[in-house]
Amino acid sequence: MLGVVLVTALATVPVAAEPRTIAGEVVDVRCYEKAADNAGDAHVDCALSCARRGATLGVLTADGVYVITGEYTAEANKRLIEFVARKVEVAGETTERAGRRTIRVRAIKLADN
Fold first, then answer.
1. Quick check: 90 and 20 in contact, CB under 8 A?
2. If DSSP states are collapsed to H, E and C, what string results for the chain?
3. C-alpha to C-alpha distance for 45 and 65, rounded to whole angstroms
4. First and final C-alpha spacing in the chain
5. Please, what CATH class does the domain formed by 17-110 belong to?
6. How far is residue 54's CA from residue 76's CA, in Å, rounded to a whole number?
7. What pLDDT, in 10s, does the model give residues 35-91?
8. What contacts 46, CB < 8 A, 6 or more positions away?
9. What's the pTM value of the predicted model, to 2 decimals?
10. How many angstroms separate the CA atoms of 58 and 32, rounded?
11. Which residues pair with 109 in a beta bridge?
């Protein structure tokens, strides 16, 4: 039993923050988790509406969604609105805890297409 408790405890310990740059689309995390097609041009109006109300935003990458944290989420995502439903490059510190990835944004820009 102790081994199960120990493994469970270790699984919830966050990995140390790792500086990196990721690329993907800024999405409304809740909508995307409901249905994977809740992204892209077809979902832009809903995503913008939710983002302006302070919904949790993330970056959808080939590896999954990184939830955006930090000062960029302040004031109902004020600094992220222009990037919602658009392809971006995000620099920051990533962590993963209990299967949930996050990125504390230091810089964000539109991706070069």
1. no
2. CHHHHHHHHHHCCCCCCEEEEEEEEEEEHHHHHHCCCCCCHHHHHHHHHHHHCCCCEEEEECCEEEEEECHHHHHHHCCCHHHECCEEEEEEEEEEECCEEEEEEEEEEECCC
3. 20
4. 53
5. mainly beta
6. 4
7. 988 898 989 999 999 999 999 999 999 999 999 999 999 999 999 999 999 999 999
8. 28, 31, 38
9. 0.84
10. 9
11. 89
> Measured on CA atoms in the order 44, 48, 49, 54, is the torsion positive or negative?
positive
Tell me the backbone φ, ψ of residue 112, rounded to 5 degrees.
-75, 125
Q: In the structure, what pLDDT confidence band is assigned to residue 8 with cuts at 50, 70 and 90?
A: very low
Would you state the pLDDT for residue 17?
A: 86
Per-domain residue ranges of the chain:
17-110
**Predicted local distance difference test score (pLDDT) of residue 36:** 87
